[in-house]
Design a protein that fits this description.
heterotrimer; A mainly alpha; B alpha/beta; C alpha/beta; B: alpha/beta; D-Maltodextrin-Binding Protein, domain 2; C: alpha/beta; Rossmann fold; 10 strands
């Protein structure tokens, strides 16, 4: 690539990264108190609570996700779309997910009154619920790693050792980069969430930020308060990167390696699969039991769901190209890719409502204020909020591409762009589609970012769910959640089926 | 031949997927840019009132006037600072015409920020001065009350509390009582109101006593309601609209208003407020909507529909709950908020 | 005429290629021989314009050109087959082929593939054929691209002696006259079968420097 083009790419990346943090610039016009970034003794205690909760949740969740993924990967569902069934509850906002357990406990309490006297509060209940809520994510990450294992390396190892040793010595180290990145994301999700901790009366730092925002109404102070969370996220991700070795290069051969583990590895798998099944069945049961008239729920949510889809689609359209540019730069051209990746993680810890309010302030006071009442606003907010995550995901996927294949394409192309459109994009299409799906699903479930940005008269489903929840219309909320699950699952299945058909057509 | 057709299909699918992806993006962008111009009369209302109540009113207004209402709703955990912050952020180029708030504090914040425009509705004449801004920047109407929701399975009528002082007495242990996080929402307003009614010092001692007792502090009024309804606590402080929901669900609960006796401070009533935004793009429509909301006939209808629980108008025949309100006026309560908030942070903000 | 002038490349303190210069004419084959790790593949990467040299240039017919221009005249067979899995073998073969017309292109692909013994595999995907077959497909792709400089980076690993010989003969037949061939290998027999002029490389340097 010529120097000019490299400079253009660098400038585009800077622009895209700026887009991710620019909304915050809108906040700084308000002044604020930077000393809030240094926590006092009380806040330090809250921060420790947050970090403790985040670490335990991330560790447990990753371990459970790994064993569940191992089970799925060695089962007869390994090649079927149904292996992604564990994602079922991933589409329900985590707060609602936690509530389904509370509701279930209450329902069960009418049969066994002793259950009602259980005080579901504190670190243990909070951790358990968070582990359940994010188990689909950690399982998905581990499964992704397993499906990209270098089968030849496994075969080579199996000749010399039993499968348990192969697991500890070959498979697990190969999975470490995936597990670490999953753990980092879950840690960030956990320390920035206050809804589940508040449900279980566990005081965390994110709650402090939110309560300060509610009292003072000053978003910029929330940013300064969020700085320690940002720092915690950066430190953790830095430590993880330091411990990460090289990612496995996948071998494209389609060989069926089914491992024969001993009981010591099988029992944890069975337990984790049981937990995964519980994680889906009980909340689903709770939603089904709590649901009123499903047809009415569909009728009440159609418009809002379409609004959500519109915001999410535009968010994907904005976020995906920006993230792709950043990912290409970070992976192939940046001088300090590790540092850049680290910088990308930090904005993940910025609360969504800050991005929302910042963006309104920025746009409303500028010449662009005409777009203030359009669907572009919530989409821009979501795109900015999820840009770091999407970039990290695409950057991880880019590392998996075979560089020799890319070089061959660059060399053999007869026209400019041929290598890009005929080789690079199709090779990278599955990752692009998955990245798009990730942003789409996250945007559909997002509340904090969208709330200050949704155009008048265009309410998204996530906001309606929370609004109805307050009214106590739990039957409608259950119905809306089921609609959300069905449609999101439907979209995922369609995408997977297309992917499977492509694979199958290539075969036998 | 077979292989070739498979091959074609395969590249076809790849192309299809690329095209679909591109089409989605294109459509999305177009849809994003191309919304929002129409000839019909329009009105933008930001409301913190539950959608399930406010939406039918917008629809009725649309039907009566032909003015299309574009609403922005809030959600409980954000109430109502989310909308206030949005309005402040939009100050340069206002989008909103009318702010219909389910309480009064944030309306006054907006007034102090210079974001409201005065409009004295002819239909607000009979609303007491304590519930109107002297310059006409906002008007309070209807409302709900704070209420103690008591679980009838766990407490008999003689065990019900009758005063806020009962809560800090030895009659109840801390784990029998649930309150929402007092840092925000109507719980915070209630603390400020108590400060305004009994003085800062005594207010603070009440707050400290509640904290020392170890009352259960939870996420919001809906959670206190649910806990009382489920019997997880004997009583939960909530708002009347939440409480009525639980009663309608058939939960074993009853509403109890505190401090109703002669000489007692009375129970906090949190009225709705409505105000026009400074620089509202549709000011004529905004006035029409404010008049529509403040119409006494509307208030009566809303009480009958269970939307309001009390009327603010003197000698109202609209019905509603019989609650003795506090004698302090809204501005006094507002002015106590900062002191109350600082105390709340100090007393309830501790990490446990 | 292709001329490699003073090409150098280092990675940190390791000097991978050091001032390498030589010339190669169309119709001629040059083989660079050396042990693993002596910088042969880096040299090919530099010539192909896939790596940026610290110093030196590639000159075509007396004119030093930027890589993006002369790249269009270069084909390469990589150490790994580097076939694209989302395309069929035939699509891989025809990717760089400049010929127009579907029938003509198909005929050419079938002809070359037939000569290399992979005629039956054209509709398969690269991950459904063996390593040796993939290597032959990569050679076919390079032949079909009809470029004037063919770079071969240890192209015949995974091939049995008979297949190796057949592939070399096919490459010579189709590229031998109009094309300059630069072969990188550690196997002197391969170089001899090509009838190549031999250059030896050690520690990033050519042992017998050409003027």
């Amino acid at each position: 690539m010529s120097d000019t083009r490299k400079r253009i790419l660098c400038a585009l990346t800077a622009l895209a990264l700026l887009f991710g943090v620019l909304p915050l610039a809108g906040l700084f016009g308000q002044g604020g108190d930077p000393t809030l970034a240094l926590p006092n003794a009380r806040r330090l205690g809250l921060l420790m609570n947050s970090v403790k909760l985040g670490l335990i949740t991330a560790l447990l969740c990753t371990a459970a996700g790994l064993f569940t993924a191992l089970f799925i990967h060695n089962s007869r569902f390994r090649d079927r779309p149904i292996r992604f069934g564990f994602l079922l509850m991933a589409f329900v906002p985590s707060y609602i997910y936690a509530l389904t357990w509370m509701n279930l406990l209450r329902e069960a309490g009418s049969i066994w009154p002793a259950l009602l006297r259980i005080r579901a509060s504190g670190l243990i209940f909070c951790t358990l619920t968070e582990v359940f809520a994010w188990l689909p994510l950690s399982t998905a990450v581990a499964l992704l790693g397993l499906e990209r294992e270098n089968r030849q390396q496994l075969d080579a190892a199996r000749i010399f050792s039993d499968d348990d040793t192969v697991f500890w010595a070959i498979q697990l180290p190969g999975l470490v980069p995936y597990l670490m990145s999953g753990m980092g994301i879950i840690f960030v999700l956990s320390i920035t969430d206050f809804s589940i901790p508040s449900l279980f009366q566990y005081n965390v730092y994110a709650m402090e930020i939110f309560s300060d925002f509610s009292i003072t109404g000053r978003a910029v102070n929330s940013f300064w308060l969020a700085v320690p969370l940002l720092a915690a996220a950066i430190v953790l991700v830095f430590l993880m990167q330091a411990g990460v070795g090289r990612m496995n290069t996948p071998a494209p051969q389609r060989q069926e390696v089914v491992m024969n583990y001993s009981l010591s590895l099988k029992i944890p798998q069975w337990i984790c699969v049981l937990v995964t099944v519980m994680q889906m069945v009980f909340p689903l049961l709770s939603l089904l039991l709590g649901m009123g008239d499903f047809a009415e729920s569909v009728r009440l949510s159609v418009e809002e769901f379409l609004n959500s889809c519109e915001f999410a689609l535009i968010a994907v359209a904005i976020c995906l190209p920006a993230a792709l540019i950043c990912a290409i730069y970070v992976n192939w051209f940046a001088r300090h890719p590790k540092l850049l990746r680290l910088l990308l993680v930090a904005p993940l810890a910025v609360p969504g409502n800050l991005i929302g309010i910042g963006l309104v302030t920025l746009i409303n006071g500028s010449v662009l204020h005409e777009i203030a009442g359009t669907s572009l606003m919530p989409a821009l907010g979501c795109a900015a909020h999820f840009l770091p995550l999407c970039t990290l995901f695409l950057s991880g996927s880019l590392q998996q591409l075979d560089r020799a294949q890319i070089r061959a394409a660059l060399l053999f192309q007869n026209r400019r762009g041929e290598a890009l459109f005929r080789v690079l994009i199709p090779m990278f299409l599955p990752a692009l589609v998955s990245g798009g799906l990730l942003v789409f699903v996250l945007s559909i479930a997002e509340v904090g970012t969208i709330l200050p940005l949704a155009p008048p008269g265009k309410e998204p489903l996530s906001v309606k769910i929370y609004n109805y929840l307050h009214y106590g219309a739990s039957d409608a909320v259950s119905g809306f959640c089921l609609v959300l699950i069905l449609v999101c699952m439907g979209i995922t299945v369609v995408i997977l089926r297309i992917g499977m058909r492509r694979k199958a057509q290539g075969g036998e | 031949m077979m292989k070739e057709s498979q091959q074609k299909r395969r590249t076809g699918t790849a192309k299809l997927m690329t095209a679909a992806l591109a089409a989605c993006m294109g459509c999305g962008l177009l849809a994003g840019c191309g919304s929002g111009d129409s000839e019909e009369r329009e009105l933008v209302v930001y409301t913190a009132v539950d959608q399930i109540y406010s939406e039918p009113i917008f629809e009725a207004f649309e039907e009566q006037t032909g003015i299309k209402v574009q609403a922005v709703y809030d959600l409980e955990s954000n109430k109502t600072t989310g909308l206030t912050n949005r309005l402040i952020a939009e100050r340069e180029n206002p989008v909103c015409d009318v702010f219909w708030n389910n309480e009064f504090v944030q309306t006054m914040v907006l007034q102090d920020e210079g974001l409201l425009e005065a409009y004295v509705s002819p239909l607000a004449e009979d609303i007491p001065d304590a519930f109107k801004d002297s310059d006409g920047y906002w008007t309070a109407f209807g409302g709900r009350a704070r209420v103690m929701l008591v679980n009838t399975d766990l407490l008999s009528p003689e065990e019900y509390p009758s005063s806020i002082y009962d809560l800090i007495s030895d009659r109840y242990s801390g784990d029998m009582i649930a309150i929402a996080y007092p840092m925000f929402g109507t719980t915070r307003t209630q603390v400020a109101a108590v400060y305004a009614a009994v003085g800062e010092e005594e207010g603070r001692s009440i707050l400290q006593a509640l904290s020392d007792k170890g009352v259960q502090v939870v996420d919001g009024n809906s959670v206190t309601r649910d806990m009382a309804a489920a019997g997880q606590v004997a009583m939960g402080y909530t708002d009347t609209d939440d409480a009525k929901g639980a009663i309608a669900d058939g939960s074993p609960v009853e509403m109890v208003f505190l401090d109703q006796g002669e000489g007692e401070m009375g129970n906090l009533i949190t009225p709705n407020t409505v105000a026009m935004i400074n620089g509202a793009p549709h000011s004529e429509e905004a006035k029409e909507f404010i008049d529509y909301l403040l119409d006494p006939a509307m208030e009566e209808r809303l009480i009958q529909d269970d939307f309001f629980d009390v009327s603010l108008r003197e000698d109202s025949t609209a019905g509603g709950l019989d609650v003795k309100g506090m004698s302090v006026n809204l501005r006094e309560i507002y002015e106590q908020l900062e002191t109350a908030s600082e105390d709340i942070q100090e007393i309830f903000g501790d990490a446990s | 005429m292709w001329e490699i002038r003073e090409l150098s490349k280092s990675y940190g303190s390791v000097q991978a290629v050091r001032q390498v210069s030589f010339r190669i004419q169309e119709g001629q084959t040059v083989a660079v021989l050396g042990e693993s790790g002596c910088g042969k593949s880096t040299l090919l990467g530099l010539i192909a314009g896939l790596l940026k040299p610290d110093q030196g240039s590639v000159v075509r017919d007396g004119k030093p050109l930027p890589a993006r221009i002369y790249q269009r005249d270069i084909a390469m067979v990589f150490q790994e087959a580097a076939l694209w899995n989302h395309m069929s073998v035939k699509e891989n073969l025809l990717f760089g082929c400049p010929k127009k017309g579907k029938q003509e292109r198909n005929r050419l692909a079938e002809e070359i593939a037939g000569e290399l013994g992979i005629g039956e595999l054209l509709e398969r995907r690269p991950d459904e054929i063996s390593g040796g077959q993939a290597k032959r497909a990569a050679a076919a792709r390079a032949i079909l691209s009809q470029r004037s400089l063919l770079l071969l980076d240890e192209p015949f690993t995974n091939l049995d002696p008979e297949m190796k010989s057949r592939t070399i003969q096919t490459v010579k037949k189709h590229c031998g006259e109009h094309c300059a061939i630069l072969l990188v290998t550690h196997d002197i027999a391969e170089a001899e079968e090509f009838g190549a002029r031999i250059l030896r490389m050690k520690n990033g340097e050519l042992e017998d420097r050409e003027e």
